[in-house]
Amino acid sequence: MDPPRTEAELDERLSRPTEADIAALADLDGDVLLLGAGGKMGPSLARLARRATEDMTPRRRIVAASRFTTPGLQEALEADGIETVPCDLLDPSALERLPDAPNVVFMAGQKFGTVADPAVTWTLNAVLPGLVARRFAGSRLIVFSTGNVYPLTATDTRGSTETDPVRPIGEYAQSAVARERIVTFFSTRLGIPAAILRLNYAVEVRYGVLRDLADRVWRRDPIDLTMGYVNVIWQRDANAVALRSLSLGSVPPTVLNVTGPEKLAVRVLANRLGQHLGAVPTFVGEEAPTALLSDASQCQRLFGPPSMELDTLLYWVADWVKRGGATLGKPTRFEEREGRF
Fold first, then answer.
1. What φ, ψ does residue 229 adopt, rounded to 5°?
2. pLDDT tens per residue, range 96-132
3. Which of 121, 187, 207, 210 has the greatest CB tally within 10 Å of its CB?
4. Cα–Cα–Cα angle for 261, 263, 266, nearest 5°?
5. What are the pLDDT digits (tens) for 262-299?
6. Nearest to 108 by CA among 90, 93, 85, 94
7. pLDDT (tens digit, 9 = 90+) per residue, 51-88?
8. For the chain, which domains are there?
9. What is the 3-class SS of 30-51, one letter each residue?
10. Interatomic CA distance for residues 309 and 315, integer angstroms
């Protein structure tokens, strides 16, 4: 498959629904409200939902709520048929004014900047989920979480499963566990059908672990191998899981690991990217016996394997970097082992 050449073409591919996506949303009643839709994944998720419901009768409203700090994003979403609501979710009056919807996807949160201002991280990741759950107590609720809630696991395993104990490393991960606990409390107390998605790591050509590695290979920067293994999933596939998980809402919440099926060696990924880029990676350090890894077998049993193969992803990312394609400028810091973000 030829790689995308422009951001418009990339956005089209990131939001192209499958028949399974369309069928899943057809089985659900009502509109979809995306909270915190201005981040890395929100715009493509909104477009995917819009395109998946395009021919449905009655017409579904897809509503994206965000502060919309990225110039032009609100207008672009509106042009694609998505209703937008500029909103500071921490403002109780603004939260109350949001339209009701039977299907709510909660994406807001903070990871980077935790060390500099942990109070903001705890407020966004632990306080806000409770406010959202109370406000949308009559809705189905999808809540994005993170694989960082798990400890580092042995690299000779497939990684943590949903039934493994959480042992968060650092304040970001601790606040993510708090988010899950608070959502579980309100789900149980108020009878909210909910699903919690522990994601790591979504990728596309403008950001993600593969983009981080490709940039380092291209610039001839050394690559630290200590965090020697990762999981990744094409962003479109992660967004599809989010929409299709609306049918999984339960009390207490369903918990689902969302990532690719493979445990990927950083050394191998960098070398394969280097082959596409015509550059030889430089490595420092050695692979530790543990890494942040998630076993997403349950997700694949429910929804099937991701649509995007690793070879295609590597080719697309390398091609984009080689041609000077845009970056979001948001490194994942996947190599961080002490939980300091």
1. -140, 150
2. 999 999 999 999 999 999 999 999 999 999 999 999 9
3. 210
4. 135
5. 999 999 999 999 999 999 999 999 999 999 999 999 99
6. 90
7. 999 999 989 999 999 999 999 999 999 999 999 999 99
8. 7-322 (3.40.50.720)
9. CCEEEECCCCCCHHHHHHHHHH
10. 10
Token output for 154:
């042995």
Q: Which residue has the tokens 């060390």?
A: 115
Token pair 């949001």 in the structure block, residue = 98
147, 198 contact by CB (below 8 A): yes
Residue-wise over 69-80: b if at least 16 C-beta within 10 A, else e?
A: eeeebbebbeeb
Q: Which two tokens stand for residue 40?
A: 């890395």
Asked whether residue 1 carries a pLDDT value surpassing 90, the answer given is no
